[in-house]
Amino acid sequence: MGQKATRLAKLGGSFGLVALATTGCSANDVLRFGWPEGVTPQADRMRELWTWSVIAALAVGVLVWGLILWSVVFHRKRGEEMPRQTQYNVPLELVYTVIPLVMVTVLFYFTATTQNYVLAQEEDPDVTVEVVSFKWNWEFRYQDETTPDGDPVTTLGTSDEIPLLVLPTDRVIQYELRSEDVIHSFFVPEFLFKRDTFPHPEKNNQDNIFQNVIDEPGAFVGRCAELCGTYHSMMNFEVRALPGDQYDQYMDLRAQENSTTGELYTASEALTEMDCGELCAPKAVTTYPFDTDRTSREANSREQN
How far apart are CA 289 and CA 271, in angstroms? Predict the structure, then answer.
């Protein structure tokens, strides 16, 4: 029996090594245990919670599997005689009652501290963006940036172009969410965070504000993650994270008039005007071949009435 167990262990180990090698995962992927990569400190903190939770779960699993294997190997049936029965082992019962309680308490503590970190808000954020969702597009209003008319710098999505949410890296960004019709959801996978947008959040007792810091420049797809109607699947936007100096240049352009069109620079026009290489190249795609007329707010209002 001992030789069979040894052979089975070797065979299982071989299968495990083959499975690990054939997945094609990098060392970083393996250590993340399938958790996606994020671009914010909040995402990193959630990844750490996930990683250590999986390690703890694997440790408990190995212990349980070992005890099961030990029972199978050393307490298998050896004859027709009934083995000695043991009941009411109080010390053992206390051990397997206290240990799970300690484990749950520790997991709860680290989960609560991670949640508090992710949801923490500074009193004076560097950038404040009002995110307005509607069927089936987005509008982004920069509360700290104004046009010559005194209005906030605004980016409004159309049926022809996905809206661009341009943000700076290494600055505290505050997002204030609301919807103009039904419930939508603001979701950027690289943030590893999403939050529903409600009509009149102040009346619905909803926390519609969150903050984060983007660690690295890049272009990230944003989505509506709440089924909201016919064109829900097309209700996308794009986050463009720029270094601080380029973000400031972008905002300066957004407050200026484009000599070609005679209108204020749009988001894509401002990025095209900037000399920052691939990072500023237009990347947002159109909704073709769908004819959605997603900016028809008046039509949406009439439909609801």
Answer: 25
Q: Is residue 135 within 8 Å of 228, Cβ to Cβ? A: yes
DSSP 165-176: EEEESSSEEEEE
Q: pLDDT tens, 26-36? A: 556 666 667 77
Task: Kindly state the tokens that stand for 81.
Answer: 């005689």
pTM: 0.76
The residues, any chain, with a CB within 8 Å of residue 178's CB and separated by 6 or more, are 130, 131, 132, 133, 197, 198, 199, 200, 201, 208
Exposed/middle/buried for residue 212 (C-beta within 10 Å: 0-12, 13-18, 19+): buried
Domain boundaries defined on the chain: 35-73+88-119, 127-287
Beta strands in the chain, from DSSP E residues, in sequence order: 127-134, 137-146, 152-156, 164-168, 172-179, 184-188, 193-197, 209-213, 218-224, 236-242
User: 164-168 and 236-242: which strand pairing?
Assistant: parallel
- Match 């508090």 to its residue by tokens: 116
Question: Taking the domain 127-287, which CATH number applies?
Answer: 2.60.40.420
pLDDT tens-digit series, residues 202-234: 766 778 899 999 998 988 888 899 998 888 888
- Residues of the chain short of pLDDT 50, as ranges, are 287-290, 296, 299-305
Return d(Cα 251, Cα 63) in angstroms, integer: 57
pLDDT for 127: 94
Token digits of residue 141: 């209003």
What's the rounded Cα separation, in Å, for the pair 106 and 112?
10
